[in-house]
Specification:
Blueprint lengths: L30 H7 L14 E9 L16 H13 L2 E5 H7 L8 H9 L7 E5 L10 H4 L4 E6 L11 E6 L1 E2 L2 E2 L1 H12 L3 E4 L3 H9 L5 E7 L27 E9 L2 E8 L7 H5 L6
Helix pairs in contact: 1-2
C-alpha cells in the first residue's frame, strides 16, 4: 500500500514565503529589512516625466476595503509592518481627502529611527504628504495639517487655499475644464518637488481614478483572513477600487507572494493602459 501523503503543514520557519522572517519576535516592524527585501531602496536613473506610482491596499477575503468606514479594523501587525516599510521608501504619500478625514492622518513617519534610516539613504526625513482634494473639502483639525514637521502638498482644481496651519502647505493646481487632472498633478510633483516614487494609500475612489488613466505601476495587496459581507454599493462596504467600472479591466502580473500567519501579501505589476476619455474622469466621485 502506498504511503499516505503527509498533511502536516510546514512550520513558519520552513515556509519560504513567510513575512515573519522579516519581523522581530516581538512583532514590531523591521522597516529596513522589509524595504531591502522588496528592493525599494534601489532607484533607476530618472528619465520619464511621471514618477513611479505604487498602490498599497488591504481587504478582507470577500473584498471589503473598509469596516465601519475605516481600513484599520482589517489590518494586522504584519500588514502594518509592510505599510510602514513602503512609506519608508517613498518620496511622497498620495491619499484622497476622504481617507485623510476618515483615518485622521497624522505624521507620516512617527518613528525617529525610521526617519534617520531615510536620511542615511539620501531621502528627506519624511515623505511629502500629498492630499487629493478637487474641491478642497478638508477639515482644518486634521492632525496632519497641524503637524509642524509635515510637508503637505494639496492636489486640487480649486483656486482656494486653506487657512494657515502648523504644517508647511503647498498647492498643485491642475484643472482640465474644471476637473482635477491627476496626470498633470503627478508630472508637477516630479518637476517641482523631485518626487520619483509615489505611494498611494487610497481611498478606493482615488485608486479607481489612477487606474483608469493608466497612472499605476505596482499594487501591494494585503489579504486579511476575514469575511465581512455587505453589498459593495452599500455606502461603507467599499472594495479597493470604487466608482466607475474600469473598461477595459486592468491586467495584473503577480511579482511576489508573502504570508504571515493566515494573511497573504501580494505584489503585482500593473499593465499600461491608454488614457480614458474626459467624460469618464468627470463622472468619478473622487474630487471632494
Amino acid at each position: 500500500m502506498a504511503a499516505k501523503p503527509s498533511t502536516t503543514a510546514p512550520t513558519r520557519a520552513e515556509h519560504p514565503l513567510s513575512l515573519e522572517r522579516l519581523l522581530p519576535a516581538d512583532g514590531a516592524a523591521s522597516v529596513g529589512e522589509i524595504v531591502e527585501h522588496f528592493g525599494l531602496w534601489e532607484r533607476s536613473p530618472a528619465t520619464a516625466e511621471l514618477p513611479l506610482v505604487m498602490l498599497n491596499m488591504v481587504a478582507t477575503v470577500d473584498g471589503r476595503a473598509t469596516l465601519g468606514g475605516r481600513s484599520g479594523p482589517i489590518s494586522d501587525a504584519a500588514d502594518r509592518a509592510l505599510f510602514h516599510g513602503l512609506r519608508a521608501a517613498a518620496d511622497a504619500v498620495l491619499v484622497g481627502a476622504g481617507t485623510v478625514r476618515m483615518e485622521r492622518y497624522g505624521r507620516l513617519i512617527a518613528n525617529a529611527e525610521c526617519r534617520e534610516l531615510r536620511r542615511r539613504r539620501g531621502l528627506s526625513a519624511e515623505p511629502l504628504a500629498c492630499i487629493v482634494s478637487g474641491r478642497l473639502a478638508l477639515d482644518e483639525e486634521i492632525p496632519l495639517l497641524a503637524e509642524p514637521e509635515a510637508r503637505v502638498v494639496i492636489l486640487t482644481s480649486s483656486p482656494a487655499s486653506l487657512p494657515a496651519s502648523g504644517a508647511q502647505v503647498d498647492y498643485v493646481r491642475t484643472a482640465n475644464d474644471g476637473i482635477l487632472d491627476l496626470r498633470a498633478g503627478l508630472i508637477e510633483l516630479r518637476e517641482r518637488f523631485a518626487v520619483e516614487r509615489v505611494l498611494c494609500e487610497g481611498g478606493p475612489h482615488l485608486c479607481a481614478q489612477l487606474l483608469a488613466v493608466g497612472l499605476v505601476d505596482e499594487l501591494f495587496m494585503s489579504v486579511a483572513p476575514k469575511l465581512a459581507g455587505g453589498e459593495p454599493s452599500g455606502g461603507e462596504a467599499l472594495r479597493i477600487v470604487a466608482g466607475t467600472e474600469l473598461d477595459p479591466v486592468v491586467e495584473l502580473e503577480l511579482l511576489a507572494v508573502l504570508r504571515a500567519g493566515s494573511s497573504l501579501f501580494l505584489r503585482y505589476g500593473v499593465s499600461a493602459r491608454e488614457r480614458v476619455s474626459r467624460e469618464t474622469i468627470a463622472s468619478s466621485s473622487l474630487a471632494r
